[in-house]
Amino acid sequence: MIQEIWNKTLETRKERYMSKRDHLWASELGKAPVDVWLKLNAVKPTNPPDARALRKFEAGNLIEWVVEMVLKRAGAVLIGEGDKGTQKWVSHQYPNMMEVTGKIDIMSGNKNGDYTSNLELDDLRLPPIFTKLADNIKMYLEEEYPTGLDKVPVEVKSCSSYMYEVYANQGASDNHKLQLFHYLKADDCKKGIILYVSKDDLRLLEFIVMNPSPVEDMYKERIATLTKYINEDKRPPLEKFIEFNMDSFKFKANWKVMYSDYLTLLYGFEHQESFRTTFDKKVNGYNRVFKRIVQSKKITDKNKEIITEMEKEFPNYKDVIILAQKSGLFDEEVKEDDSKEK
Fold first, then answer.
1. Pairing label, strands 99-110, 86-92
2. What is the pTM of this model?
């Protein structure tokens, strides 16, 4: 009985009424322009979040709440003078561009260096380790910031252990940096923090975004692009199915397509799994052959067929091969079963 109530409650969300709007959400800045354009025009999604996605949203909310409680216990959440410390709405607008609005997860800060907190985590029935964690953070802040802590927006993101490793190796995603930079720009803050918390083992990563910084160029460009399409009443182009990552020199399926709320409307796929099934094999083939070329291995007839496909979608792939060879990422020999290539 509890199982049924629990799952049904987490998988039920009231459908939001959609209407045309003339402003952007900060969380939309890193998404595909065509998706954002459709939402701004109140086009109903063909692929809204499924039950699993809704449960993941709530798991993320739970992680965010725990982080908020720990920081409050450490005396590091700015509360007072009209600042709630959490979920504060802020907006910013460049001249002749669309307004951007969004809610700051947590506004960290301390005005006088007194990190005393009346919040007792034991009263919330949180495990004792979180009280110890909060106290350790408090001791660090008292030592490093004895006169107080400037306000610092904190964006909390939960993730799988797999994505945790991706962020650890490649840094914070552009999507999240854009969202956080909006809060810096809108609330005149010099520094913001992105926290990634693994839902699998509670490991935490911390990334800093500064203001000013090069992120503003990307932030402003995204807003300008969307403003242009809205003003012209012109739908942006579709996303490519496969992207190439210049940091890792690997092909990957475009997440902006796979997680599109308009996957069926725009790209003809019934659901995410059908997209993944179609492109995972192709991406693996591209990466396998690309690696063989970089390592100057024998190119088979089957490889040549894949190369022909790669050339159509990525005409400059030969230039990238030269960069990959200079990078040294492929210097280490990896044993392969060449019979699979025949």
1. antiparallel
2. 0.89
